[in-house]
Amino acid sequence: MSSVDTAWLRMDSSRNLMMIVGVWVFGARLAYEDMARLLEERLLAYRRFRQRVEADAIGYQWVDDDRFRIDRHLKRARLRGAGSDRELQRFTARLAAQPLDPAHPLWQFHLVENYNGTSAMVARIHHCIADGIALVRVTLSLTDAKAPTVPRSDEEGEAAELESNPWVPYLKPLTRGTVAAIDATGTLVTKSLGVVANPERLADYAQVGSRLVRDTLAILLMSNDTPTRLKGTPCGRKAIAWNDPLPLDEVKAVCRGIGASVNDVLLSCVAGALRRYLLGRGDDVAEDCEVRAMVPVNLRPLDEPIAALGNRFGLVPLCLPVGIANPVERVREVRRRMDELKSGYQPIIAYFLLGAAGVLPHAVQTGALEYLGNKGTAVMTNVPGPNETIGMAGVPVTKVMVWVPQSGDIGIGVSILSYAGGVQFGVMSDTALCPEPQAIIDGFEPEFERLVLALAMLPNGLLLGRRLAPGELEHVLLGS
What stretch of H or E contains 89? Predict the structure, then answer.
């Protein structure tokens, strides 16, 4: 097991379990036998899903589970009462707080057979098996339109992963400057004469190296975000809520009008919803109030098949400007902060810091990761899903949601997933910090509608790609 995967395995605690939790809602009833056959044919093509974790003197190993049975990992379930959204949310929340059986492969699906007259499925997969991007692609291989692409043999895939240059999968998404910097750092002794012989390259290395040092220190010396009721000590019990999807076409229209990306607009809506939640409970929200969200960043080439599972992603700490009341100004500030993060190397630094933590003694790793984890309030993912409706075992999938785990004392998980022309928001919270996440969910659509209204009232082209002057929006909207 790699050091990064080991870090995720050892990060489990009574407050937060390191499971990725997914919910699929179907447009008709799905038979248990059809789902079992699909898992055996598609999911088990990846050897990791037939393996359990075994500890030995040198760490942890993946070993085949000689007692593997599909019925241990695919369970039938029935909701209480009429099988409403609320009951599915409660059922998912209970599962999110239950640990997986370490004696067997660390994953389990529950097929809900009475959800609103149809079926739903709740999936739990331990983060040590793979990261969210890999698991989304693996679960998409279960759909009718796509079969899994796996190595010709598991041994080939694992050998290729070990024998190939271990930097390659992580360097491809990065800028040429990052590649040069890491290349220089990784082979400093052997390349030192080359740098001296080519002094014009020294400035480039120095500039990128300086940014690497700065970004590393920014992670290690990160200050706390603003204390709010969403920070504290989790109890380990979960609550879950989700919304009806926003039309993706409307989101894109707002993005074009405001000169921002879809990601910028959606993250701004998250900040606005958190602001509404805090204000609605009588909290004082100052102009400089920030809620830090840890955002996973994929380091896996999206245009290549997954030859091996595992974790290949970094984290960036994004401070959401919750204190900004003006929705357009909030989008602009989110865009500025995202541009700053995109120009740095924090994802790759976070990845290797996590790898280093995985080889430390357990107690040291726990202390180090909790120190960093407690610098934030939330974990947030924004995953682009299929544009068209997909099917599973001949049954259409109408809704998809995925939450990654919260570590340390973080008690809020926000999921944003676009699928089949809609954008789905979901919140998983610890009940000690946020007992009613539906109150946060209820703020997403009003915050988006504020942006729609602002754009509708502005002259065409006023906001296209440029910054607002102080008071400009208020002047146009209020005629002041």
Answer: helix 85-96
Pairing between β-strand 422-430 and β-strand 238-242 as defined by DSSP bridges: antiparallel
Helix residue ranges per DSSP H, 299-457? 327-342, 346-357, 362-373, 438-441, 444-457
Residue with tokens 């004469």: 193
Amino acid at 422: G
Question: What letter does residue 394 receive in the DSSP assignment?
Answer: T
pLDDT tens track, the chain, 480 positions: 888 888 888 888 899 999 999 999 999 999 999 999 999 999 999 999 999 999 887 789 999 999 999 999 999 999 998 899 999 999 999 999 999 999 999 999 999 999 999 999 999 999 999 887 788 778 888 888 654 455 444 444 443 443 333 333 433 434 333 333 333 333 333 344 344 444 455 455 566 667 677 766 666 666 788 999 999 999 999 999 999 999 999 999 999 888 889 999 999 999 999 999 999 999 999 999 999 998 887 776 666 566 678 877 777 888 999 999 999 899 999 999 888 877 666 666 766 666 666 666 767 766 766 666 677 899 998 888 888 999 999 999 999 999 988 888 899 999 999 999 999 999 999 999 999 999 999 999 999 999 988 887 766 545 544 445 555 555 544 443
316 within 8 A of 456, measured Cβ to Cβ: no
Contact present, 413 and 425 (Cβ < 8 Å): no
3-state secondary structure of 163: helix
Indicate the length of the chain as a whole number: 480
Domains of the chain, each with CATH number or no CATH = 3-163 (3.30.559.10), 168-217 (no CATH), 224-382+427-478 (no CATH)
State the DSSP string of 453-476.
HHHHHSPTTSSTTSPPPTTHHHHH
Residue 445 carries which side chain, given as an amino acid letter? Answer: E
For residue 367, what are its two tokens?
A: 């202390």
What's the helix, strand, coil split of the chain in %, to 5? 40, 20, 35
Amino acid at site 393 = A
**pTM higher than 0.85:** no
Residue 204: exposure state from Cβ atoms within 10 A (0-12, 13-18, ≥19) = middle
Spell out the residues 6+ positions from residue 439 whose beta carbon is closer than 8 angstroms to its own.
Answer: 277, 280
Two tokens, residue 197: 């012989």
- Tell me whether strands 412-419 and 422-430 are parallel, antiparallel or unpaired: antiparallel
Q: Residue 27: count other Cβ atoms within 10 Å of its Cβ.
A: 14
